[in-house]
Amino acid sequence: MTVGRYPRLVHVFPELAADIVTLLRAEDENHSLANTIEDLLFYGVCTCSATCTNLLTAPPGSSGSWMVQLEQNSEDVIWLSLDPTATTITDIEVLDGRDLGSAGRRPA
C-alpha cells in the first residue's frame, strides 16, 4: 500500500520494520517511537554517497541531530535518525549486514 507516491516501510521491509519495533520496545518503555513504525513511508535509499546505507523515511534533509542506536548482543545493528523534535524517524541505517533486496539498493 502506498500513501501518495511512497509506500509504507512495513510493506517494503516487513522483517526490518518488525525488528525495529522489537528493539525499540526493549529499549523504550513508553513505546512512543515503536508506535510510529507502521505509519512510516519509504522515500528510497539515500544517494548522498556510493557507500551510504540509509533508508529514507522522510524527505531528504529532514533529519535533526537526534539518533537512536539499537543494539543486539551489545552491538549496534540499526541507527535511527530523528527529526529536530526527536519524535519522527527520518532515516534508518542498517548496520547488521542483512540483505534488503532490490528495494534497498541504490538505483544504477
Description:
By secondary structure, this protein is α+β, with helices and mostly antiparallel strands. It has one domain. The protein is 17% helix and 28% strand. It contains two helices and seven strands; from the N terminus they run ββααβββββ. The strands form two sheets. A five-stranded antiparallel sheet has the order 3-4-7-6-5, covered by helices on one side. It has a two-stranded antiparallel sheet with strand order 1-2. The radius of gyration is 13 Å and the shape is globular. The model has no long low-confidence stretch (mean pLDDT 87).
Low-confidence stretches: none
Radius of gyration: 13 Å
What is the H/E order? EEHHEEEEE
Shape: globular
Label the structural class: alpha+beta
Can you give the helix content as a percent range?
10-25%
End-to-end C-alpha gap? 25 Å
| Main sheet characteristics | 5 strands, antiparallel
Mean pLDDT rating: 87
What proportion of the residues form beta strands (DSSP E)? 25-35%
Number of helices: 2
How many domains?
Answer: 1
Biggest sheet, strands in spatial order? 3-4-7-6-5
Report a brief summary of the structure.
With about 110 residues, the protein is an alpha+beta fold. About 15% of the residues lie in helices and about 30% in strands. The protein has one domain.
Task: Present the secondary structure layout.
Blueprint: E1 2-3, E2 6-7, H1 9-12, H2 14-27, E3 44-45, E4 54-56, E5 66-72, E6 75-82, E7 89-94
Main features:
108 residues; alpha+beta; two-stranded antiparallel sheet; 2 helices; 17% helix
